[in-house]
Every structure is written in C-alpha cells, then in structure tokens.
Specification:
The complex is a heterodimer of chains A (110) and B (115). Chain A is mainly β and 110 residues long. Chain A contains no helices and 11 strands. In chain A, strands 2, 4, 5, 9, 10 and 11 form a 6-stranded mixed beta sheet that branches. A 5-stranded antiparallel beta sheet of chain A has the order 1-3-8-7-6, with no helix packed on it. In chain B, a hairpin with a 5-residue loop joins strand 4 and strand 5. The radius of gyration of chain B is 13 Å and the shape is globular. Classes of the chains: A mainly beta (110), B mainly beta (115). Chains A and B meet through strand 4, strand 5, strand 9 and strand 10 of A and strand 4, strand 5, strand 9 and strand 10 of B.
Chain lengths: 110, 115
Amino acid sequence: GIQVEQSPPDLILQEGANSTLRCNFSDSVNNLQWFHQNPWGQLINLFYIPSGTKQNGRLSATTVATERYSLLYISSSQTTDSGVYFCAVDDYSGYSTLTFGKGTMLLVSP
Amino acid sequence: DTAVSQTPKYLVTQMGNDKSIKCEQNLGHDTMYWYKQDSKKFLKIMFSYNNKELIINETVPNRFSPKSPDKAHLNLHINSLELGDSAVYFCATSALAGGNTDTQYFGPGTRLTVL
C-alpha cells in the first residue's frame, strides 16, 4: 500500500515563529488532507488539497502531486496551534479510504 | 448541529464484554468509515460503508462488526473485548465513494479502555 512519511516528528516553537511541516507519499494520490488533532483529541480538517495551494488565515498548504509531497505552513504560531498535525492520503485503490502519516507533534510555548 | 457525532465519548469495560459505539451524521453523505487510533496516535482504517454495503475490511478481527441501520448511522459492535482493543475509535464520513474523492469529516472519537 501507499506509504506516508511526515517530518519532523516533533517540533517546539516559540509563539510568533513560523514553521513548515512536510508530507511525502510513495504513489499517486487523488485525495490529500491535513488535519490538526488538538490536545483534547479532536481531529480538525485543515485542508483538502490533492494538488495546488490553499490558504486559510495563518495556515497555508501546497501539494506538488508530480513530486509526491505536500507542505503545511504555519505562520505567527500561537499556543492554540499545539497538537499533532496529520497528513492523510487516498490513493487510486478505489476504496476512498485515508492512509495516515505518523504525524508531527507541535508544541508552541508562550 | 454537530455534523458527525459519536456516543459514548468514553467507554471503560472489562475484558470479555461486548460493547457498541454509535455514529451518526447529518451531512447527507454516502460513505461512512471507522478508524482506530492506537496508543502511539497512529490512525488506521477499519471499515468503509457505502449505502449500507461494506466496501472494505482492513483485516480487522471478526469480533468487530459494523452495522448500518440507515444511511445516517454506522455503529461499531465489538464482541469479547481484549486488552489490545483499547484505543480511540473515530467515525468519519464523505460525500463520494468507490474511487472518487472528497473531504472526509471526522467525529469527536470514542476512547475505549479495556481492563
């Protein structure tokens, strides 16, 4: 099956700093989503981005499908950005299920 | 209104018991899923249901059985619970299925603890 690798595994930032999270995948995808799992365990959709670039406030994401990677940018980080960021992909297997990476654990300190 | 809801939020039970987790969605989506998140926070697909038909079962033990009474509900029944079943279980939905792609929306999760 498709492999999804996220980096870095852990990241500690001071409030106000910027960061870039990376997601590499091993095969062509027809769906790529970024999620934020907050400290209460809730999985929050950030982006549906199988290709191209999207922005939502301080967050933006870019997927280069031909090179099989996606980047999540967090600017002017806040303590509420802390949590685990997951990249998940759906390949062309026909089942529309998501394969998740292991996540990036982000801690933003005041 | 919560788009995808799960009950209960927490479930603590003894080994060997049978339990159910309920999932309801009000998005009108065609496909529902169950994912399992283990103690290392790794998320993995368990089941996918489209219009009451099981699309895929990812080598999950047959002690786990999804049941969909209607398009808006997908419940997860677990028989003879084992310690290794302790995890957080997430329900999810999407509008499309069968190779088509769309955003998946996740419920709040159910934390199952087996003692």
